[in-house]
Structures
1.
Amino acid sequence: MDFDKTFSKIEPSAKRGLERIYNEYVEGRKKFGKFKSEYEAYGVILEELNEFWHLVQNHDKEWAGPDNMKSEIQAVGAMAVAYLVEIANMEIEIALTGVYRKYDFKRDKKEKFNSPHEAYAMILEQTDKFWHMVKWEVDTKTDSIPKINRMIEIGALTMKFIIEM
């Protein structure tokens, strides 16, 4: 996919945020391969979210600054995109467009994060909602829309953090 061509018309800061998620997705797939199950996707997303939370808890330490938080949160967004592409069988362009549109909707409503703690809580809430669907065996093939919506929401929230915090 030619990222610059595909997303040439979006506002520059939004494009940079989405591109960070996309680049992390591409690098992660090269390193670790594709997800094999929803359980694996959930586990990896939760691991990345926990790494972000560790930085949030230690925000007063030099090593836990905003740049490192953004790097960790972009991994969460990238894994949400990986779910959309690898488990929900979306084209990468469609997955990223969904994340961008959801972010853009939130931006239009002028909903800003008050703190990294709030960002963590909101992303964790969406991750938990996804997990409950997986745990109760909501079939991805027949009832994929709620799970897809959770992953798009996670991607949009991570994009929002990268751009606005």
2.
Amino acid sequence: MLKSDIRWPSHRRYRSRTEWEPVGFFSDCLCNSTSFDLMLGFFSSSAISVLSDGFAVFLYNNGYMRLIINDVLTIEDRKAISIGVGKEEIPYFDLSNIKSIKESLSERDMHFFECLSWLIRNNRIQIKIISPKDGIGISHTKSGIFYDGLNSIGFDGSCNFSRTALLDNIESISASCDWDGPVDSARIDVMREDFNRVFNGRDENIIYVDSENVKISLSSIFQQKSIDDLLEDEYKLLKNKSKLAIPSTAMLSLSRAKDKIEAIIEKKSFLEEQSIKYGKLPVFLMLPGQEIIKNRRLRTGRTMVKKGSLRWLQGQEKRLHL
């Protein structure tokens, strides 16, 4: 749960290269949410770089997403970016050419798009693509709301067009928690109203672009992986990230995400064994989406541990809130 299962900084602010990294914020929130509204004013690798850790866990939790993407930049925006990055290529994704996007992705970015593809194929996402109207620019921030069925977290992320910010993924996030009091709750309500106004087509300052072809391209061009494959991919990404020099608070968040994935896969293996042993699976043991997987070793090289008891499984669920 967002309130009880996450360690929050008292100042509620996250910034790259500090003790409280944005990657820790998004990893924790994705692992503990069932709903995610996200507005990406600048659709680029730097914008999605912190969204790969915990995304597969969000899918496993039956997560539902609403995504708004600003596809077309104004001439002024392009000039600002060009000045900021110098001779470097402008690092944004061209949604008119999904194949070119795929060719430029890192392993972590590829995982984000494969999760996005899964959401599209399973009707768990709505996408709106927007562009500026009459030369009026759109705020190039990362903002949105996480919800777990009980509590909400709103966030605003800053972005500027410096080379460091765009190419080295420097950003800051300010979070608002609804349990912090009426001011924070009101701030989240305003964020939700702003998001809904754009999402529902009521903002007169923007043009709405048909997103159907983009959704079809995303779901067909990117590999159609199962939840099991995505969980194992994410496990490997998190395991590799543990070798990097990351602040302890962010590393703790990523470790929690890795622990959740381990417990999820072990739970799925246990349930598969029970279904084979008894012929069918009791209803109270079914997984979200009623998905059962084949018993196998993880491709990460980690040996599957057979705990073999319902008591152990229930203890794992209670510890990690699965």
3.
Amino acid sequence: MNRTSLSPAERDFRSKLAQLAHDNWLLRGSLSVRTRKCGKASCHCAKGELHASLYLVQSHDGKPRQLCIPKLWEPRVRQAVNDYQQLQRLIEEVSELSSATREAGLYLTATLTSDPGIQAAVNCRPMVPAWSPAGSRKLT
């Protein structure tokens, strides 16, 4: 399938997907902030201001895996997780758009080919989608 056969909306989504996947570092998972006391009596956490740590939570082979993220890495890891989640949302949108387009085409074809008057008008020729070069692919 070439790009010219896609709708403008689908081409736009696919371009965003390609750019996001090519230009960014991606991390699957979610981020979790944990707070804790260190145990020192003189520390500020003993008075209620707890220490916070960021964890990347991922599932591997059905088991959760949690990685503590160093403070210096936090901005980059947050961005990588956000970019991955954005990529997933775009993939879902492209999938829904493709599915809706395909369903609309199948509905139209079924409607047109089941009407005897329309069949006679087109001399029972097989339908060729508008996006396909004439005769190169038949819609079934």
4.
Amino acid sequence: MNLLEVKNLQVHFPVKHGVLSRVKARVRAVDDVSLTVAAGETLGVVGESGCGKTTLGRAIVRLIEPTAGRIFFAGEEISRLRGSELRARRRKFQMIFQDPYGSLNPRMTVEQIIGEAIDIHKLAADAAARREKIAALLESVGLDAAQAGRYPHEFSGGQRQRIGIARALAVEPELIVCDEPVSALDVSVQAQIINLLQDLQQQRGLAYLFIAHDLAVVEHIGQRVLVMYLGKVVELAEAKVAIRAPKQVVVRSTRAVRSPKRVAGLKLPRCARSSRATGPRVIWPNENSPRSKAPRTRGTVKLGSSVSFARSTPSGAIRNFSEFSFRPRSPKSQLRASPAPSGKANYARLGIRL
């Protein structure tokens, strides 16, 4: 029996105009989508931006109310559940969000973020058991249990995504909807998160609905691939078949952009044919500009000088970088690449007086 079954799911958003906000049209974000996910399986969902992938995932976990269609989880229809009944069933399916920066409450510590779900579903007998469970969850995703008292802004993007994974695991789900969990992360961190998700799947028998743009990631982690275009399913096949021998131009064009090699039947855009990628640019302000005042940090910033930067936290000082010298060569680009969390973002922010 399938763990998840979706039948003819539709999600439409009204377009309103005028003083009376009358509905003039409807955006068919998800239009008649059907799919199944077996226990322990990973179903990849790919498609261009705006095709309805995220809306599909949110509708399945009932963060968005579907317009029509039926959703079955473990043989029980959940598309009509409300209130306490839905809350009780929602423990079995969770979601990992795309943005590791916006999905965590900045006013809450890591212990409060993970412990919130434990408290709602009453999964810990007392405070000591709650702390032990949170510590075990942090260690399972590769974080130190001593970091539970810190706030989200004290972590890198990859570490924040690990916190989001720990939050999803807190209620012991059977299905996790992964909404592009690695797209906002460094390349060096993406592999760590993918390997972590695979290890957790083997240990806990999880099923994934994995939404992504990177076809190599989907082929690596998924057994089957569902291709969406304009809210509809245009292809559903085994991962290797759908990606290496696709029937739809959606997947073929995505392969073309990822690799500069020619794909039969497609004319690659100029950006895909380029042999050299353009690195990020850092615009340095004039020393006489209003933003060139000394930052509120321990250390000084001066173009071409040595820089030391540290932040104070309740648990002590975090030294982001120390005795770091740089001299930008305008108007050329400055590219900084290194594993997270190495201080790249703080280096750039400090340079432009943020």
